[in-house]
Write a structure and sequence with these properties.
Number of helices: 9
CATH class of the largest domain: Mainly Beta
Shape: globular
Low-confidence stretches: 337-365
Number of domains: 3
CATH superfamily of the largest domain: Cupredoxins -  blue copper proteins
Oligomer: single chain
Helix content: 25-40%
Radius of gyration: 27 Å
Largest sheet: 6 strands, mixed
Order of helices and strands: HHHEEEEEEEEEEHHEHEEHHH
Number of strands: 13
């Protein structure tokens, strides 16, 4: 039955562990909507015939429905909405949670191409290569306008937004090649912003990591008519580039990688830690928070620190911002000194020193 409905709705076969659940919810919503629409249509015809005016002098009798019927109908429709929302929200949370031991891949979108980079500096253009039967998490940003990463077979769609880092996770169950599209109008060549997602078997994945090009990847490149080399191997990891970018932009003049107190919060052990803001709110220092702190540092000021950091909006390329975030990620397990855990109260941090008078720029919190 589900295969028939997919054929009727022109849906590709589901390829991820979450796609089948999304399809079932989709079919359930459509089924209930179809039955409800049919019921309304039949009742409309019946009422038209049953209560039609039979003569010019006929005066109709007022008709009222029982109060219990009205309340029951309203409650039933509300219950359906809550059920749909609950199932859909659960699926949304599952796709946006960070699975343990997931393979992180940084995605940079720009007019009109996709760039994918793994932590070891392995870069591909247009073709996302992942292992089958493993959790994968994408960290997306854009260099220009809003794009939307959309893979129909995975029932996966996530916007890539300038000056932000968004994330989404998936798990492809078996090897295969799947279409990648941009689902947000992004300019004149929007329709050409295509790509492929290639899930490799363990043997092909090992060959890919060893520097060879498995047949599915070569076929995907041929389909896309990619000019030039598909793959680029950086001389350094994305975290290494992030460290260099942090130094070049003056970030390390106000932040440290060792846990020592300075003008801004230390990056040691910062990633994924709960931090307390000046207004008392608690947030998780994830990719989006770190990126936003570079672009709009005053928006979420950490308690105990002065609002002295300049904005880097328009001053630092999105690729370098993503690399700095990856560098902060790499410092996650660096031990922080107990006296540097500043979130519990403002007094823990004490008054920070003012920024250097020379005007040296600070990095992201």
């Amino acid at each position: 039955m589900t295969d028939f409905l997919r054929a009727v709705l022109f849906l590709p076969d589901p390829a991820s562990s979450s796609a089948r659940g999304i399809d079932l919810l989709h079919f359930f919503v459509l089924g209930v909507s179809a039955v409800g629409s049919l019921l309304v249509f039949v009742l409309a015809i019946w009422f038209t015939v049953r209560y039609r005016r039979r003569s010019s002098s006929e005066v109709g009798t007022p008709v009222s429905s029982p109060r219990g019927f009205e309340v029951g109908t309203a409650f039933g429709m509300f219950a359906l909405f809550v059920l749909w929302w609950g199932v859909g929200f659960k699926q949304y949370i599952e796709m946006h949670q960070s699975p343990k031991q997931a393979l992180d891949i940084h995605v940079v979108a720009k007019q009109w191409m996709w760039k994918f980079e793994q932590a070891d500096g392995d870069v591909t253009l247009g073709v996302l290569v992942v292992p089958a039967d493993r959790d994968v998490r994408l960290l997306l940003t854009s260099r220009d306008v809003v794009h939307s990463f959309y893979v129909p077979a995975l029932r996966l769609k996530q916007d890539a937004v300038p000056a932000m880092t968004t994330s989404i996770a998936f798990h492809i169950e078996s090897p295969g090649t799947f279409r990648l599209l941009c689902a947000e109008y992004c300019g004149l060549s929007h329709s050409r912003m295509r790509g492929r997602v290639v899930a490799l078997s363990p043997e092909d994945w090992d060959a890919w990591k060893a520097g060879r090009t498995p047949e599915p990847v070569a076929a995907a490149k041929s389909e896309l008519e990619v000019a030039g080399p598909l793959r680029q191997k950086a001389d350094e990891t994305i975290a290494d580039r992030g460290r260099a970018a942090a130094v070049s932009h003056g970030c390390m003049s106000c932040h440290t990688a060792t846990g020592e107190k300075h003008i801004g919060p230390s990056w040691a052990g910062l990633y994924r830690r709960q931090v307390t803001l000046e207004d008392g709110r608690h947030v998780t220092a994830d990719e989006n928070y770190l990126t936003r702190s570079m672009m709009d540092p005053s928006a979420q000021l950490v308690r105990g620190y002065q609002d002295v950091m300049p904005t880097y909006q328009g001053q630092i390329p999105q690729a370098e911002a993503a690399a700095i975030v990856a560098y902060i990620q790499s410092l996650r397990d660096v031990r922080r000194r107990p006296e540097q855990i500043l979130e519990s109260s403002a007094s823990d941090a004490g008054p920070p020193s003012p920024p250097p008078s020379s005007g040296t720029q600070q990095g992201a919190e």
